[in-house]
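Instructor's aside before we start: the two examples that follow are unrelated to each other. I chose them only because their records fit on one page, so don't look for a connection. First example below.
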Amino acid sequence: MALPLTAISSLPKAPNLADPANFQDDAATFVGALASFRSSINSMIDEINGGLSNASILGTVRQSSGSPTGSLFEPGSNSNGAYVRFADGTQICTSNALYGTAANIAVSTNYRTADMNWIYPASFVGEPRLSASCRSEVNHWATVRPISGGNTTEAVLRGWAAAGPQATAWTYVATAVGRWF
């Protein structure tokens, strides 16, 4: 397959702010040429893909004996958050905003919230890697852990404050990365 490299070499010069007299005309010519360039690139991609369609890119991801048989990506969401499954078995889940209680439980020199349970929007086949953050001011953070060792469906999130106790409830988000097969 010969790639139409002439599409790249035929692009006109980009508009130059240092040449205000010709900037508008050069910009219009350049933008017009980009549409043709985009069409050439899309044709190249279609040829490379050999008929790969949007339906085979986004849709239901499936596997058989560990080999992908469905689409490349499967995005989804429910009341627990959003997820993306990849054909290689990787899965990423993100929580909806979790609204914690006040950080008023003393732990050493810090204060924490009560536990907040997060059910993953899609389950994993093994315990995922977890991370969490606090959408608030400085000196607040979040921790997340599986609800029990090896848990593939749920995690526990806690909010923390460096000075406190804090009467305000903050917003937290969590992410889980693991495998769906």
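Example two begins here.
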Amino acid sequence: MEIVTKEGIKQIHAKTTITNIASQKVLEKNEFKHTASSDVEFEMNGKKLKFVHYIWISHFNYRGE
């Protein structure tokens, strides 16, 4: 996330499926915070799934501190 911060990016939004626990763990390990779980279902590979939404917010002070 260091490069993202240096580029001045303030937020990154991400989503994964509710059953993709590995992706959820990767997001959380990288300081993404869970923001919502979708109520809307969609079908993928014959399975009904929902999305889990995440956000990462930079806490970097843009003066370089």
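The chain has one domain: 2-57.
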